[in-house]
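pinging the channel bc i need a second pair of eyes. not urgent but kinda urgent?? the chain im working w is below, pasted from the shared doc
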Amino acid sequence: MKQFIINENEAGQRFDKYLAKLLKEAPKSFFYKMMRKKNITLNGKKATGSEKLAPGDEVKLFLSEETFGKFAGNTEVAKAVCRLDIIYEDEHILLVNKPAGMLSQPSDSGEPSLVEYVIGYLLEKGEITKETLKTFKPAVCNRLDRNTSGIVAAGKSLAGLQELSALFHDRAIHKDYLCLVQGVIKNENYIKGYLHKDAKCNKVVVYDSGMEESLPIETSYTPWGDNGSVTLLRVRLITGRTHQIRAHLAGTGHPLAGDGKYGREAFNRSFREKYSLKHQLLHAYRLEFPEMKGKLGNLSGRIFTASLPQNFFHIIQEEDLEESYYENLERTVGICKDDHHCGDRGNTCE
């Protein structure tokens, strides 16, 4: 017999949804049959599976070790260890300054992503256990490309994950990025288009009008300064599509520095030779929460920023854009040169 006590991160869901996670290799018909026969009970009583779980509920499975092991499947926990650059943390959420080069979410390659690093971090702190990971796993709620750095929000609890995901889905959270683009831009702008994904070359193409399977996109940007050949831009995503900033700006004739997929080779080559730049200069630097209540009420109206990677900041200095950077940073988030520090990119991950 196996006994489980429902915790806060498991409460609020239907009993059958919980069983589907606990016995992930079992067909639904199996645990419905076991409930009918009272081989699976909830609080000592026969259950139908439609019950909403509450903290403290008792689940008993009168199954053999062999049967439970067969249907529970592989219980190994996917985790990795990394010194995370944490911007903010409470009992429900975690804001991390992700370095360029790190995946946001797991992929088929098996390479560790930020999700595994967050799980490893919380396991080391003792805030989660291998047992609780069977029915709830912390996850990230917004995704950045591998070579885009900056703020990623993760849900540590079920409530945090659900509320964060809803905020991002409803576009209630403002996401601002900094990037360095080719050419001179003097005026802020609000641009629209339609994004179509070309699966053959794993790229997206932006069109002025809609076509089959294309998605509408909206992007606004404000120049933070230029040196006559490149411009430091603050970009706000109105919609959030794959490669939206990179493809949209490239479509206006202002590709990102270092962007091998959407940029221009001669422009990128000059930055490789001068700064050893191997990826696009795109950083999610600011996250602004709306006025709200509930589990995340303590975040209502708050603004969080992520320090620039050292190589990005160095390029800004060398391109004579440092003064413009600090002037705009102080104006938009109240951070001046004296109290701003660039992110430490000395992360060591396993």
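so The two ends are 37 Å apart (CA to CA). and Residues 114-125 form the longest helix (12 residues). — does that match what u expected or am i reading it wrong
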